[in-house]
Amino acid sequence: MSTPARTRPEKGSELELTVDSLAYGGNGVARLDGYVVFVQGAMPGDRVRARIDRSKRGYAEASTVELLEPSPDRVEPRAPHPGASWQVLPYERQVAAKESQVREALARIGHFEDPPVAPMVPAVDPWRYRNKLEYSFGSSDADGLVLGFHRPGRWDEIDDVSDDILASERINAVREAVKAWCRDEGLLAYDRRVHTGFLRNLVVREGRRTGQVQARLVTSPGAALRVQSLVEAVAVDSLLWTQAAGVGETSREGQTELLAGPAYIEEETLGLRFRVSPEAFFQTNTDMAERLYGVAADLAGLSGGERVYDLFCGIGTIALALALRAREVWGIEVVESAVADAIENARLNSVDNAHFFAGDVRTAMRPLVEKAGKPDVVVIDPPRAGLSQKIVRRVLEAGARRIVYVSCNPTTLAPNARQMVDAGYRLTAVRPVDMFPQTPHIECVALLERAQ
Ligand SMILES: C[S@@+](CC[C@H](N)C(=O)[O-])C[C@H]1O[C@@H](n2cnc3c(N)ncnc32)[C@H](O)[C@@H]1O
């Protein structure tokens, strides 16, 4: 029986809770006399029965056991999808929640009193926008071999997917073709509990503007594949096979062999053509990447004479977009194949004022300043963890007039921006851009200007 609680709830207990808002990361927020409970699987306005998974002095974490009264704002989900937990929220509510989470992170973590957050740039298409998907193989009693996503909270169980509502029809068709071929061949999924079996993951990438598709099959090592039969069954532009021996999720490890086509695909954005290698990062929403880079370019405020640094430059997308409006651009990126792509992309697009270096921003920043001279504008686009304090210090030393910070995590942007402001910059603009509709993920671009 569930009971209303007035004190800190015990782990394992069940409570009835009313959710009033959404926290960063997507969990619902409920309050017990001011004590906060983060509830997984609940939306604002829901009344739920929830089980307490963790109980701390300041807050608790819980999972929804039963939806007692759904929020009147809930909409019907299109299809089950563990990566699209916000599809039950109307799209305008998703956008409003993300805007307020950016504001909240800057205020609470960055101690900005009234952060200058502009309205979010909404998605061009809130469905079927992803250009890269990673599926996992598993098995079920009913269906045998399955290919889909991890069941939420389960590292060892995979649910089959027949229509991935965030992927294009084309990617869905490729996944189904690979699954059918593997079933026909009698291949078995890798069992994550006992470490036996063969098939692990399928990574599919699509150039949305070029129509090119790449599939990469990830397996355990040791068994043979009927390669020609697979090539014919899957019919993609680029087909790769990675054999990985580790026991964890292995799509980023192992030895990769090219089975058909080139090892890369190409994509277009902002009128430029980009080669993308399998290990290289590319924004997963092509239409919105164009909007994101457009916002970054506007905030960079270039007039043609500037020296620009593009830190964490990947395959050179931002650098090449800005090179057209600057005197010169210098990019740093740690993944060597991505740097090779960036150099090739500069050549493909006849850009001769962009230069790229392989290196860790932490150690490569000072040598770059010595080689290239101090930048006028620095663009930073780090992974979710944001910048270490040391990298922020290196950026501050370089003394750029403007810092354009592209962030996929406002909770790491906030302390980085605070460190920059404490060193003499002003946070003058923040523009969220919805790269990830139906999910709680947030992207935004911030501008920091050096006080004169
Ligand atoms: C969010 S992606 C941005 C890539 C690029 N700006 C784009 O939009 O396509 C972050 C990039 O930083 C790179 N990276 C991560 N840590 C790094 C480091 N310490 N030094 C240099 N690059 C790093 C990753 O390999 C990845 O390409």
Report a brief summary of the structure.
The chain is α/β, with parallel strands linked by helices and 452 residues long.
Key descriptive features of the protein:
single chain; 21 strands; 452 residues; alpha/beta; disordered N terminus; OB fold (Dihydrolipoamide Acetyltransferase, E2P); binds S-adenosylmethionine; 7-stranded mixed β-sheet; 31% strand; Rossmann fold
Structure description:
The chain has 452 residues and is α/β, with parallel strands linked by helices. The protein has 3 domains: 1-73, OB fold (Dihydrolipoamide Acetyltransferase, E2P); 95-124 and 285-450, Vaccinia Virus protein VP39 (Rossmann fold), CATH 3.40.50; 132-263, OB fold (Dihydrolipoamide Acetyltransferase, E2P) (Beta Barrel), CATH 2.40.50.1070. Helices cover 25% and strands 31% of the residues. The chain contains 9 helices and 21 strands. The chain has helices at 91-108, 169-185, 227-234, 286-300, 317-323, 336-348, 361-372, 389-398, 410-422, and strands at residues 14-22, 28-32, 35-40, 47-55, 59-69, 132-140, 144-150, 158-160, 199-206, 213-219, 238-243, 255-260, 265-269, 272-276, 307-311, 328-333, 354-358, 377-380, 402-407, 425-433, 443-450. The strands form 4 sheets. It has a 7-stranded mixed β-sheet with strand order 8-7-6-9-10-11-12. Strand 7 and strand 8 form a beta hairpin. It is globular. Residues 1-5 have low confidence and may be disordered. S-adenosylmethionine (SAM) binds next to helix 5, strand 16 and helix 7.
